[in-house]
Design brief:
- With 250 residues, the protein is α/β, with parallel strands linked by helices.
- The protein has one domain: 2-Layer Sandwich (Ribosomal Protein S5, domain 2).
- 29% of the residues lie in helices and 29% in strands.
- It is built from five helices and eleven strands.
- The protein has helices at 5-25, 91-109, 135-147, 173-182, 240-248; strands at residues 50-59, 65-76, 81-85, 116-124, 155-157, 160-161, 167-168, 187-191, 200-209, 212-221, 233-237.
- A four-stranded mixed β-sheet has the order 1-2-4-3. A three-stranded parallel β-sheet has the order 5-8-11, with helices on both faces. A two-stranded antiparallel sheet has the order 6-7.
- Helix 2 packs across helix 3.
- The longest helix has 21 residues, at 5-25.
- The chain is globular and about 50 Å long.
Length: 250
């Protein structure tokens, strides 16, 4: 064997042993595909969160009455407002309703909501629903969650919420009453003045402010003879405090 053969063999052995030892000493890296969590449609149950749910009649894009489920979860926190609206296109209107509802709930409960987180989950068997008339229901459900009180499941309500706690007009009263009746509810609360008419008609009101145009949708009562063909009991309420008596009263 040639003299130069031994050094070559020695180098090869050293390289092989070094590579083997290095491979064993280096931790293996395992790559995993990151899974993006899906949106939770139903509220997740948590022992630190109190939940309240109300089933509210609404009108969809075809003017048919549908039932909307509004669930509010309340917990100690940092004043966050979280929303989970399932496949429903009324975000802009509902966002304002939620903000107003939160402020009214704070006034009525006397709680500092900067110290609470609120989770709003809204689901319905529809793709488009008008949002403002859910304001009163959202407010009452928020209060119920904060107080950890159960709402009467046989009672429901429609009407927009104003910052002072009063309840404003809502559209589609007849369709909503029929939907509530079909879902075995026994009492339907409506804004004051509703029973003097057969629902309301939708009007858009715009104004100029600081060079920008601001518009809002208002409902004006129709001057007719009232609601007909409805067997469910319908009562008028003027504000949230009055409505709470029907939902939480003994």
């Amino acid at each position: 064997m040639e003299k130069w053969t031994y050094p070559v063999i020695a180098v090869i052995l050293l390289f092989t042993v070094g590579y083997a030892l290095g491979t064993l000493a280096t931790p293996r890296v395992v790559y995993k595909t990151k899974t993006v969590p899906q949106v939770v449609v139903k509220p997740m149950k948590d022992s630190n969160i109190t939940y309240s749910t109300m089933y509210v009649p609404a009108v969809d894009q075809t003017s048919e009455g549908v039932i909307t489920a509004i669930t509010v979860g309340a917990s100690k926190g940092t004043g966050q407002t979280l929303t989970n609206i399932d496949r429903i296109l009324f975000w802009v209107d509902t966002q304002q309703s939620i903000l107003t509802s939160r402020a009214v709930a704070q006034n009525i409960t006397g709680l500092n909501l900067d110290e609470y987180d609120l989770i709003y989950t809204i689901t319905a068997n529809a793709s488009v629903i008008e949002g403002p008339s859910a304001g009163a229901a959202i407010t009452i459900t928020t209060i119920s969650a904060l107080w950890n009180r159960t709402l009467n499941p046989n009672v429901t309500i429609t009407g927009l919420i104003r910052p002072d706690g009063s309840i404003g007009p809502a559209g589609g009263i007849t369709e909503k009453a029929r939907s509530a009746e079909a879902n075995n509810m026994t009492l339907f609360l409506v804004p004051k003045g509703t029973l003097k008419s057969d629902g309301t008609e939708r009007e858009k009101s715009c104004r100029q402010l600081d060079g920008s145009e601001y518009c809002e949708v208002v409902y004006v009562p129709k001057k007719t003879d009232g609601i007909e063909g409805i067997n469910i009991e319908v009562r008028e309420v003027e504000n949230i405090s009055e409505a709470l008596e029907y939902f939480m009263g003994e």
